[in-house]
Amino acid sequence: MRSRKTDAEQKFEEILQRFEIPLLQYAVRITGDRERARDVVQETFIKFQRNGALDRADEPATWLFTVCRNGALNVCRKERRMMYLDEEAIEFRGTEEPLPFDRLEQKEAAGFLLRIVATLPPRQQEVIQLKFQNDLSYQQIAKIMKTTANNVGVLLHTALKTLRQRYGEIAGDFIPFKPRTTE
Amino acid sequence: MKMNLDDPKLTAYALGELEEPEKSAVARAIGDSPEAQRVVVETQQVARALRSQYELELNERWIAPRRFIAVTDDSFWSKAGPLAIAAVLTLLALIGALVLATNRSGSALHLAGSSPREQAESGRFSAVEGEEASQFAPDPSRDFGAASYAYVGEHPFVSVSSNPHSGFPIVVTPGSYSEVFQSINAGVLPPKDTVRIEQMINYFNYDYPEPRSDELFSVNVDVAGCPWDQSHRLVRIGLKGREAPRDVHGANVIARDTKIDVEFNPVSVGSYRLIGYDKRSLKGENSNGEGPRDKGIAAGYTVTALYELVPVAQQFSTRQTAQTLLSAKLRFKKPDGNGEVQSIERSVTDDGVDFAQAHPDLKFAAAVAEFGMILCDSGYKGSGTLGAVLKWAQEGKGDDANGYRAGFIEMVRKTQTLKKS
Q1: What is the pTM of this model?
Q2: Which residues contact B210 (CB under 8 A, 6 or more apart)?
């Protein structure tokens, strides 16, 4: 048995520690199924090791999310699930429908903003999660989602517009705004 | 430059994504527009709130990683083989039970006596090399060595957000049950393709209330914990047609073109799976999964369908208030009517009933469903065993005036013997 971890092992564990849960949550939201998500994330880390991605990637986030996303979409295709992130399914669901919670309850609930996120169209949910959970740049997100940084900007802008409105309506606690004037 | 509030650049600026010279240009434009300034400030507030809520969510660990163990030496398994597997399975089952139990209560995952960090590290795989990496211990919820998804005709889990509507054929014949019964009685496990779970479920009578005086059908829905996957919910939808005397032609045909539309609420249901109704048996299925048109429903007809639901991630249920789970809408035409479509609709909330407290009929139907899934080695059979099927069937046996359910229980026992031999 090894008594000390090698540097590579140490680094790998750090990456596992940092990305495993975010990847699981990402995969669950694509596959709609925890068990499949666990398979996908396990497979992602195995590939990560085998391909020596550890050595090459200074910034493993893009690599991991891309491979995880592909894996999750493959599961959807194989099992002929309705694809959560299918291009055709984009904008499938309207965002008009109010959530059946009363205001007070929403405000009290710690994760109420995430509940609003869950009502957004799938690709908007995806950019929000990649941006604010994982702090990725427009460029990185574009690479993962196989689209352009411009498109990521549009998706984020649209999503945040809805979130701003709903957040204001429900929480009503935007910090009072004072316009500043130009010199 | 006049700032358009619908310009994605405004959001990119607020999030610090712009580079020079664009950044300065947008900054100047914003200076002239109090509205644009407000958008920037509010966007940043929402961004902060999102970041902190995602962080909380991560700490809640609403999805536990799989506990897998790396195998670095093949010979270890060949030498220590069965004992080691048994030990690993026991350990994993224990951890699995804890994970399920804590997940179910919606709380963060903690093992007694260890910090989340220690606990997270203890179960993780250490670095592994080469091809051995794929040889992980099996998931405790599956039979060791069993091939998953060998049976391809089943309905998969479908995401509610992309497809909230589901339906199932109203007309079900119970033929498969007899085939399975005869085969097992003769000492042979039935071929997988003779096992039609919906037909087996509908071989049995379930006690549904008579329709209200102003309605032709009673639409009955109940919900309980899913016995083969504790994190899932099991929904039973039962329809019963009104009893009616035969008409002058000797027929008691009461409705036609009957269709059911089940709509799941994305707020409470993440995904769903219709149990049974194997796709290969639905030759005449249309795009809505409704199956062939019925030529008429007889008086007193009943049909039962089961759905397995994956509830919406637990981090959202900080309050245990019951949400609408689904609504079921039955549409039909009266046989003597002028083609006018009538409908009956029911909405259901999930009161969080455990399987132990479920209606006996639901328990029995669940036992039949799981038995069918075990027979066809379904990828969705979860943690259920023949022993568990026996227990559920006995708990759900009820009066069993005609002895059909006792016959089922006997058949499960025979299957246990056949599987062992």
Answers
A1: 0.46
A2: B218, B240, B242, B243
3-state secondary structure of B270: strand
A22 chain-B contacts, CB cut-off 8 A: 58
Beta strands in B226-315 (DSSP E): 233-241, 253-264, 269-274, 297-298, 302-311
Q: Does B12 touch chain A (CB under 8 A)?
A: yes
Instruction: Pick A16's closest partner by Cβ from B124, B139, B318.
Output: B124
pLDDT at A96: 34
Which residue from B12, B124, B159 is facing A153, i.e. has the nearest CB? B12
pLDDT band at B118 (very low <50, low <70, confident <90, very high): very low
Domain A92-173 top-level CATH class? mainly alpha
Q: How far is A109 from chain B (nearest CA, A)?
A: 6
Q: What is the pLDDT of residues B365-420, one digit of tens each?
A: 999 999 999 998 888 999 999 999 999 999 999 988 878 899 999 999 999 998 87
Domain A1-83 falls in which CATH fold? Answer: Rna Polymerase Sigma Factor; Chain: A (1.10.1740)
A45 contact partners, CB below 8 Å, separation of at least 6: A16, A20
Q: Any idea where the domains of chain A sit in the sequence? A: 1-83, 92-173
Range(s) of chain B covered by CATH 2.60.40.10: 158-420
Contact B1, B25 (CB under 8 A): yes
Cβ separation of B266 and A119 shorter than 8 Å?
yes
Share of chain B above pLDDT 90, in %: 25
- Residue B51's nearest CA partner among A128, A127, A141 is A128
- The answer to whether residues B167 and B285 touch, using CB atoms and an 8 Å cutoff, is no
For residue B276, give the DSSP letter. Answer: S
Q: Find residues 292-321 of chain B whose CB sits inside 8 Å of chain A.
A: 310, 312-313, 315-316, 318-319, 321
User: Cα(B295)–Cα(B292) distance, rounded to whole angstroms?
Assistant: 9
What is the CATH code of the structural domain delimited by B158-420? 2.60.40.10
In tens, the pLDDT along B156-193 reads 888 888 889 998 888 777 778 888 888 888 888 888 87
Between A109, A113, A181, which is nearest B319 by CB? A109
For residue B86, give both structure tokens. 């048994």
